[in-house]
Structure formats: C-alpha cells, structure tokens
Amino acid sequence: MRLLTNADVASVLTMREGIAALRTGYDDLARGDAAFIPRIDLCAPTGRDDDYYQWGSMAGACRSYGVVAVRIKSDIASWPQGGTQEKYRVEPGTYSGIILLYSITNGEPVALLQDGYLQHVRVGAAAGIGVDAMARPEAGTLGLIGSGGMARSFLEAIAEVRPLSSVRVYSTTPENRERFAAVARDDLGLDVRAVGSAQEAVQGAGIVATATDSMTATFDPAWLDPGTHVTCVTRRELSPELVARADRVVQLGINTIPYGVRTPPSSM
Q: What is the pTM of this model?
C-alpha cells in the first residue's frame, strides 16, 4: 500500500491530466460503469459557542481504473459574522483530508493519499470540463471571483479548455487579488487583471467563475450578459434568481441545486 503526500501527487499530476482522468470517470458514469456516494457531513458540538466539528465523507468507484476512492475530511467549522465559512484542523492553516484507494478487483487497499493538492485539481477539472462542454465556443473572457487556492485551480482548468484573451479577478481583499493577478500572469502567461468590484469582474465576461468561501451569493445575475457560462465551487455562491434564469443547469446528482428551476437539472 502506497503512502502519497501532497508533494508526491503534485510531482506527477497536472491539471491537464486531471481533466483527462475526470472525463474517464464521467464517461464511466454515463455508461453505468461507475457509482458514487455523495458527500455526507456529520456535525457535532465542540463545546464552544462559535464553532462545530464537521466530519465529511464521499466515495466513488470507476471501472476503467479498477478502483474505489473514499475521501474523508475532519474539520472545525465556523461562520464568522455569518458571511463566510472557515475551516481548520488542529489549528488555523492546517488540514487533514485523506483519500483511501482500494482495488475493485480483489478488495486490496492500494494507496493512502493526502487530499490537499488532488482535491483542488478535481474541483478545478470539473469546472474546466463544464466550460468545455457548455460555454460558447467564442467565450474567451473570464470574470473570476475569489483569489485563493481554488480560484487558482479554476483559472488553470478553464485556461486548459479555452484560449483566454483576458481575465478579471475580484476578491474582497485588495492585496490578495493584486497578488493573485501578478502570480497568475507570471505562472500562466495570461492577461490577468485585478479589479475593484465583483460587477467589474462579471460584466461583459463570456465565462464567470466564483470560487470563494462565501455563505451568500457573490454577484448579481443582472450583471450577466445573455449566454454567459457560470460555474461555482458551492451552491451558496449563486442566487436563486440566477439558477431560475439559467437555460441549462448541470450538476452531479441532485443534492445541492433544487428542482424548482425552469429547466430541471440534468445529471452529468
């Protein structure tokens, strides 16, 4: 049984390879050759008034790769001022998610992996596949809300499937968005510019991605042009008005976006 750290995974897995692997999994799911258990969270009181313990798990089996993966995460979660969801393990800035990998041929435990890097690739890759499948072919401008690690993953993945002519990024902390834009320009060779408002990031963009820890909608759907493709990390980042306005809503399963929209969601 192999033990793989975040550094081990990062040394061999690129975003392009992550997108290809996830496509294989989705193809298996469409054929009936894959199965999954959606994320389940168990919450328990910590004994403090301002946070909760949160244990989460999810699992999936893929016939093409011959494995089942079980992801487990352990968090202390809080909602300061109700605006964002903050998480840590042991102390702020540390995390402890793991992935257990088993063979579906003989049940053998194959690997134990840290999930930090792999989780970012997985979520970003899913957004990239969505953009590739649903965004207009000519959509080459990205409005990005968020300046953390997941925003970087979204940007890398979308840039893999679309030649981006410009990226406008907004987050609530000016220093963070300026630093994000500068690093992305250097690392990815893209025209990335920090802007002063969510409206400035979103308005006129062919693709809009929101990758934040916000507990509420991050932008007004009135700012969107017709035909804009929107992707997010969590359902909380999108307003009910945006979902109701959408021509198509695609998600894996039915566990986050309700069926009360004009066009029922379809499973990916």
A: 0.90
